[in-house]
Write a sequence for this structure.
């Protein structure tokens, strides 16, 4: 295969995996017009249409889906081989694609971006925020970050955080108007802010546990959303009771008195956040370095080296 042919196939895969010419062009370091020309050249060379394009979306044809299914694993293997070859020189380099929950991106990844880049300037991080539980293998991601109970099967998992607690919270104004629920059954008389899972579109059934007794229930209220900021804003503005993970924003609102906890003795504890990757591939050096950074192991090693130098 000539280099130009491989570049065309890699460009096609990038468009399909990002469902956008603009995002794929940005990833490849090309202009959207140059990328579009590359795809047209590939389709002309193969004599088949691979993508259906509109002004708003891009999707594979049947032939495009079959082609991507065959070439995606090979491109992944070639990228890994190149990364390993670079690592043999003592450098950590390449593009690292991570699929992550928004709360993990905000809580774990964002605070460490600068430190990771300073330690590994030749690694390009491609972070995709995805609360829809996408298949990381099909999407050609190197790793994903999920709550432990939602991990995909046949994966190697690395725990990033301790278990997380679900918190039922509401504004003081709402509780003054509607009263404080003492049991989950009381929620049927309350306005509740619902969460819709991205991807599946399913509405979360609230889960509770007390003294070994578990229950789940559907609740109703004035708002349903699949975005964390929206549901937290709704709770702060007194629309109803929210049941959510104890993230920094919710905890901050509780500390400031903007939200109050209810049903605390019924709140469920869920497995914490895990980074996971396919057990069919050895983690590339960039992924190992990224895991070390998320676990602050790189910082510990740096401190140890500093102590030895100053000893």
């Amino acid at each position: 295969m000539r280099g130009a042919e491989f570049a065309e196939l890699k460009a096609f895969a990038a468009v399909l995996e990002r469902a956008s010419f603009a995002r794929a062009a940005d990833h490849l370091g090309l202009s959207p017009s140059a990328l579009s020309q590359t795809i047209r050249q590939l389709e002309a060379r193969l004599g088949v249409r691979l993508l259906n394009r509109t002004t708003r979306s891009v999707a594979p044809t049947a032939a495009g889906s079959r082609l991507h299914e065959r070439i995606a694993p090979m491109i992944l293997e070639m990228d890994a081989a190149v990364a390993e070859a670079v690592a043999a020189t003592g450098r950590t380099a390449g593009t690292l694609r991570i699929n992550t929950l928004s709360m993990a991106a905000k809580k774990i990844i964002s605070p460490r971006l600068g430190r990771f880049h300073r330690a590994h300037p030749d690694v390009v991080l491609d972070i995709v925020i995805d609360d829809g539980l996408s298949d990381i293998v099909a999407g050609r991601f190197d790793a994903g970050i999920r709550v432990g109970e939602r991990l995909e099967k046949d994966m190697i998992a690395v725990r990033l955080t301790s278990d997380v607690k679900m918190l039922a919270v509401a504004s003081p104004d709402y509780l003054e108007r509607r009263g404080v629920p003492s049991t989950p059954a009381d929620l049927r008389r309350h306005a509740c802010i619902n969460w819709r899972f991205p991807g599946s579109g399913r509405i979360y059934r609230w889960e509770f546990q007390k003294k070994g007794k578990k229950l789940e229930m559907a609740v109703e209220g004035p708002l349903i959303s699949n975005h964390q900021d929206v549901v937290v804003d709704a709770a702060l503005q007194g629309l109803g009771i929210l049941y959510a993970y104890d993230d920094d924003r919710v905890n901050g609102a509780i500390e400031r008195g903007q939200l109050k906890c209810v049903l605390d003795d019924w709140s469920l504890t869920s497995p914490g956040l895990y980074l996971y990757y396919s057990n069919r591939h050895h983690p590339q050096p960039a992924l190992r370095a990224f895991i070390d950074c998320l676990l602050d192991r790189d910082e510990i090693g740096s401190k140890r080296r500093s102590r030895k130098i100053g000893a």
